[in-house]
Design goal:
- With 255 residues, the chain is α+β, with helices and mostly antiparallel strands.
- Helices cover 25% and strands 48% of the residues.
- Strands 2, 4, 5, 7 and 8 form a five-stranded antiparallel β-sheet that branches.
- Helix 1 (3-36) runs antiparallel to helix 3 (228-253).
- The protein is rod-shaped and about 80 Å long.
Length: 255
């Protein structure tokens, strides 16, 4: 072998190193692209809400409409229903008997929430917001005016209650999916009264209102296009480099 050939052979070693580096880079690129091809799942949520203002009880099946979940957004995984109610009112009472008397004002209501015509579907325990306060009055003063030593008028009575429930069963979730609205039915029956001994005249007003929020939790999948073409190109380039370097090596060896 000539000195010239020896020089060329020595100079080929850097070329071989570059070839290996190029193949390594192509392999790394192929691995990255292959990883990028995997599907990516994201967990998302949003809330729909509705309310009904204060109304005189008794309230029977007042609708609270919520937009159903749009299945094109992804797969519904759970639904959380948050329900809250307020009860307000006033009480007037007059003790019409003799002597001192302790009278207790009880403001309250029995609140229920259901879906469509099935009030038990949600399985929510009925709410029972209530407040009580005791007042002492004297003998009847002869005037039925809910005032003076024998009577009182109490305004601004307030009570509240709330509950929450999460649904994950497929059959339950199906009721929340689709086009249009889902009607929740709100009912409130007054339980307000004035209790005490003796003869008592009373007049009580009870109002109730409600708020509902529905949290839709869902998953959406975003797929990156398969990297088949790019992967093939990277491997083709590596093989091409290998073939070219092999020809150069043979040429040197035959010199």
């Amino acid at each position: 072998m000539s000195n010239h050939a020896i020089v060329r052979l020595k100079n080929s070693f850097p070329m071989t190193t570059k070839l290996l580096n190029s193949l390594a880079a192509a392999t790394t690129l192929a691995g990255v692209l292959a990883t990028a091809g995997a599907a990516s799942a994201a967990s998302l949520s949003y809330t729909e809400s509705a309310s009904i203002g204060m109304q005189n009880t008794n309230i029977v099946n007042a609708p609270l409409s919520i937009q159903k979940f749009d299945s094109s957004l992804g797969t519904l995984t759970s639904v959380t229903v948050n329900f809250a109610t307020d009860v307000t009112g006033s009480a007037r009472f007059e003790h019409t008997g003799q002597g001192q008397n302790d009278l207790t004002v009880n403001l309250g209501a029995l609140i229920s929430l259901g879906i469509n015509d099935d009030l038990s579907l949600l399985g929510l325990t009925p709410l029972t917001p209530s407040v009580s306060q005791t007042y002492t009055v004297g003998s009847f003063d002869g005037v039925l005016d809910f005032d003076g030593p024998s009577g009182k008028t109490i305004n601004g009575l307030m009570a509240a209650d709330s509950s929450s429930k999460t649904f994950t069963d497929t059959n339950d979730l199906a009721k929340f999916i689709g086009a249009g609205n889902l009607d929740f039915l709100f009912s409130a029956t007054a339980t307000s009264n004035v209790t005490g001994s003796g003869n008592v005249a009373t007049f009580i007003t009870t109002l109730a209102g409600a708020n509902i929020s529905v949290v839709y939790n869902y998953e959406t999948t975003q797929s990156v296009p398969e990297p088949t073409a790019a992967l093939g190109l990277g491997l083709f380039a590596g093989v091409g480099l290998l073939s070219q370097r092999k020809k150069s090596w043979l040429k040197i060896s035959n010199s």
